[in-house]
Write a structure and sequence with these properties.
This protein is mainly β and 375 residues long. It has a single domain (30-185, 202-365), classed as AttH-like fold. 3% of the residues lie in helices and 50% in strands. The protein is built from two helices and 23 strands. The strands form two sheets. Strands 1, 2, 3, 4, 5, 6, 7, 8, 9, 10, 11, 12, 13 and 21 form a 14-stranded antiparallel β-sheet that branches. The protein has a nine-stranded antiparallel β-sheet with strand order 17-16-15-14-23-22-20-19-18, with no helix packed on it. The chain is globular, with a radius of gyration of 20 Å.
Length: 375
């Protein structure tokens, strides 16, 4: 092995006792091109004033790393996105975006320096609840593993400052909360691959719900992937207490009831019932306050020129987008839709992420064809 080949493998991580295989840390255990390792965060003021979503991912087998910040405010969605070839994985920064892990599983700092998208921030995250291990997601489609992912979720509070279109806004933990997740494994990333035998099958066919809710002394983590056949490849319903000495509580197999806006695939509200809560069955009323259409512009799959892990060239690329929310809604509703959510049950009021998606036919919501809208 010559020196140049050696330097392509060794990195600063190799000086830490964290190896999981006989490979260097730079090389993950699988050669699957779709392996990824990603941060996701959201930040909101527990209201409909603004909604910021941001994240960073690395794709070792595609040789790239990228990041984005998307902010919805006053009917406009502004996006900063950046990509560069993957170097040392300890460098969690791309363009103006960087993450600093101050205290693992508890405190992180996210900085987005001023850029052409006219959105920037310097905010520190403090976990208000323990990080929660979500169930593994595994989907095999006609012989190919499409999803094999693991992640943890956490509710927390934000402090610092965000600037939107020249307006500096104080971010204070008394009102500003959000959720985050860390996920890794295999899922479709990078340039789109030929569908082949799966061309008539949506990878995540059916309904997707993901709602981490923060009620102060506890959070509720609800998630559900339900296929048109009513099979559920993934579901979760847990109450996680702020007090780390209290064990999380399983709330039973969740039941959902959604109100879909006529002529769309968007929801105006939901009722999620947890039948086996320790105090007896509870139903959480859910209401979206402000929507961020992350499927457009950020890399989540609806843009031909920018997908998570897509090769953007040898040089670092930073781009700015500005879109009218009403204009992108007709297309964006077919992807994952994230909103600030207000959640209530038994006199308790909480806020968090209200995320949903309906992919292809789903007769329980009167969606019969791939492109159907609710009548």
């Amino acid at each position: 092995m010559n020196a140049s080949q050696y330097n392509q493998s060794i990195s600063s991580w190799d000086d830490y006792p964290v190896h999981q295989t006989s490979e260097y840390i730079r090389h993950v255990a699988t050669s699957d091109r779709n392996f990824y390792d990603r941060y996701y965060f959201n930040l909101h003021p527990s209201s409909d004033r603004y909604f910021a979503i941001f994240g960073l991912g690395v794709y070792p087998n595609l040789g790239t790393t990228d990041a984005f910040l998307a902010v919805t405010h006053d009917g406009v969605q502004r996006i900063m996105r950046a990509s560069k070839p993957l170097g040392d994985r300890m460098d969690i920064s791309v363009g103006p975006f960087r993450i600093e892990v101050l205290e693992p599983l508890h405190r992180l700092r996210v900085v987005v320096e001023p850029n052409e998208a006219d959105i920037s921030m310097d905010v520190t995250w403090t976990g208000s609840h323990p990080a929660f291990e979500e169930p593994r997601q595994y989907i095999r489609s006609r012989g190919t593993v499409m999803f094999d992912t693991q992640r943890f979720a956490q509710c927390g509070r934000w402090e610092g400052q965000i600037t939107i279109a020249g307006e500096e806004i104080a971010v204070t933990p008394d009102v500003c909360g959000g959720s985050r997740d860390r996920s890794w494994g295999v899922r479709p990333v990078g340039e789109k691959q030929p569908d082949g035998i799966r061309q008539s099958i949506h990878t995540m066919a059916g309904m997707w719900n993901y709602m981490p809710m923060d009620f102060g002394d506890h959070s509720i983590i609800y998630m559900c992937h339900e296929e048109p056949s009513e099979n559920r490849p993934l579901e979760e319903a847990m109450r996680v207490w702020k007090d780390p000495t209290r064990e999380p509580e399983w709330l039973g197999h969740p039941q959902w009831e959604h109100d879909m806006i006529p002529g769309t695939r968007l929801l105006s509200g939901s009722r999620i019932t947890f039948p086996d809560a320790p105090e007896g069955s509870i139903t959480v009323d859910c209401k979206p306050l402000l929507t961020n259409f992350i499927s457009i512009g950020t890399g989540y799959g609806m843009d031909e020129d920018w997908r998570h892990g897509m090769w953007q060239g040898e040089e670092e690329v930073v781009q700015a987008l500005e879109m009218n929310v009403d204009e992108i809604r007709p297309l964006a509703q077919y992807g994952v839709v994230d909103s600030v959510g207000e959640f209530t049950y038994d006199g308790k009021v909480g806020y968090g992420l209200y995320e949903h998606g309906f992919f292809g036919p789903f007769e329980k919501m009167n969606l019969h064809e791939q492109g159907d809208l609710h009548p």
